[in-house]
């Protein structure tokens, strides 16, 4: 279509490269802003956000003296749920069951503290993450299209070149 409009082979060949470059630029920009936001909010004071509030906790997976994974749980007294948050495993240690063990730790915590369900939200694009949640018993309950990550400006160019789907999961532990 580009060639039909411009009659230029050069422009037709360069356009996909330009578009991929724009996608890369905005993806990187949004992700770096998101990480900056995370590092200046809850991850800047893990004790305050996850260790002090009742019904919340934070775990670290250590292997051979190295931190290889983390996960947090944040309780919500209003609806008697606990949210699984910040699950992350070092890319060099993925596929070894660490994420599953961390997820089970949150489920165990939720049962010990009499929560009725565990919820989580993820923007993960890798199917392995979604399969992990389902293997732990979570049910996919919805998708929010064009989700805005913290730190996103929602500018026209950002919306054109970077879109996020936010998947919500829930694991019902007991009926209320």
UniProtKB/TrEMBL annotation:
Domain N-acetyltransferase: start-end pairs: 20-163
Coiled coil: none
InterPro entries given in the database record: Acyl_CoA_acyltransferase, GNAT_dom, NAT_camello-type
Primary localization: cytoplasm
Keyword annotations of the record: Acyltransferase, Cytoplasm, Endoplasmic reticulum, Membrane, Microsome, Mitochondrion, Transferase, Transmembrane, Transmembrane helix
Enzyme Commission number: 2.3.1.17
GO cellular component: endoplasmic reticulum membrane; mitochondrial membrane
Localization: Cytoplasm; Endoplasmic reticulum membrane; Microsome membrane; Mitochondrion membrane
Membrane-related topology note: Single-pass membrane protein
Pfam families per the UniProt record, alphabetical: Acetyltransf_1
PROSITE patterns: GNAT
GO molecular function: L-aspartate N-acetyltransferase activity
Reactions listed under catalytic activity: L-aspartate + acetyl-CoA = N-acetyl-L-aspartate + CoA + H(+)
Similarity comment: family membership: Belongs to the NAT8 family.
PANTHER family: GNAT FAMILY N-ACETYLTRANSFERASE, N-ACETYLASPARTATE SYNTHETASE
Protein role: Catalyzes the synthesis of N-acetylaspartate acid (NAA) from L-aspartate and acetyl-CoA. Promotes dopamine uptake by regulating TNF-alpha expression. Attenuates methamphetamine-induced inhibition of dopamine uptake.
Protein name: N-acetylaspartate synthetase
Name of encoding gene: Nat8l
């Amino acid at each position: 279509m580009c060639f039909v409009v411009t009659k230029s082979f050069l422009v037709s060949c360069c356009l996909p490269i330009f578009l991929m470059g724009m996608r890369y630029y905005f993806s990187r920009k949004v992700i770096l802003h998101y990480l900056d936001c995370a590092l200046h909010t809850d991850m800047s004071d893990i004790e305050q956000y996850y260790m002090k509030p009742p019904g919340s906790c934070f775990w670290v997976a250590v292997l051979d003296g190295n931190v290889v994974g983390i996960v947090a749980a944040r309780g919500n007294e209003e609806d008697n749920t606990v949210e699984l948050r910040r699950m992350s495993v070092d890319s060099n240690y993925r596929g070894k069951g660490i994420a599953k063990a961390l997820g089970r730790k949150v489920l165990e915590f939720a049962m010990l503290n009499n929560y009725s369900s565990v919820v989580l939200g993820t923007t993960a694009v890798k199917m392995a993450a979604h399969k992990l949640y389902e293997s732990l018993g979570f049910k996919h309950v919805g998708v929010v299209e064009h989700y805005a990550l913290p730190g996103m400006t929602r500018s026209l160019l950002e919306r054109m070149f970077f879109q996020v789907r936010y998947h919500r999961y829930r694991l019902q532990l007991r009926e209320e």
